[in-house]
Amino acid sequence: MLSELSDSKIQVGVKQTLKAIDKGIVLKLFVALDADPSVTALPVKKCRELGIEIKEVPSSSELGRACNIKIAASMAVIVK
Questions:
Q1: Residue 24 DSSP class
Q2: Which is it for the CA torsion 8, 31, 54, 56, positive or negative?
Q3: At what angle do helices 14-23 and 37-50 cross, to 10 degrees?
Q4: Element of type H or E holding 77
Q5: Contact status, residue 35 vs residue 74, Cβ threshold 8 Å
Q6: Hey, is 79 helix, strand or coil?
Q7: Is 76:53 a contact under the CB 8 Å cutoff?
Q8: Distance CA 63, CA 17 (A)
Q9: 73: number of Cβ within 10 Å
Q10: How far apart are CA 34 and CA 75, in angstroms?
Q11: Alpha carbon separation from 74 to 16, 33, 55, 63, 79 (Å, rounded)
Q12: Domains and their CATH numbers in the chain
């Protein structure tokens, strides 16, 4: 599942995710289960409303590694 992130064009983080959603270019959302729900709620809600697939990842550190960054990531999206 997370291997998709290394093989695709991605955006990482809440701000970048929201921008990508607004542009209509999101194919799939990955959200860390240990991320603060007050931070992740809006992007998750928007993706649900748009019918975008949402995948849950156990931890933000695992998601960050999957995105090839050295810090934790609360969310990431695969974009067109």
A1: T
A2: positive
A3: 20
A4: strand 75-79
A5: yes
A6: strand
A7: no
A8: 14
A9: 27
A10: 10
A11: 11, 8, 12, 7, 17
A12: 3-79 (3.30.1330.30)
Say yes or no to pLDDT of 62 above 80. Answer: yes
Q: Kindly state the average pLDDT of the residues 63-75.
A: 96
Length of the chain: 80
- Two tokens at 67? 């995105």
**DSSP state for residue 45 in the 8-state scheme:** H
How far apart CA 58 and CA 80 sit, in angstroms, is 25
Say which residues have a Cβ less than 8 Å from residue 29's Cβ, sequence separation at least 6. Answer: 17, 43, 44, 47, 52, 53, 54, 55, 75, 76, 77
At 37-52, the pLDDT tens digits run 999 999 999 999 999 9
Q: In Å, how far are 14, 25, 49, 60, 66 from 36, measured between CA atoms? A: 11, 24, 20, 10, 19
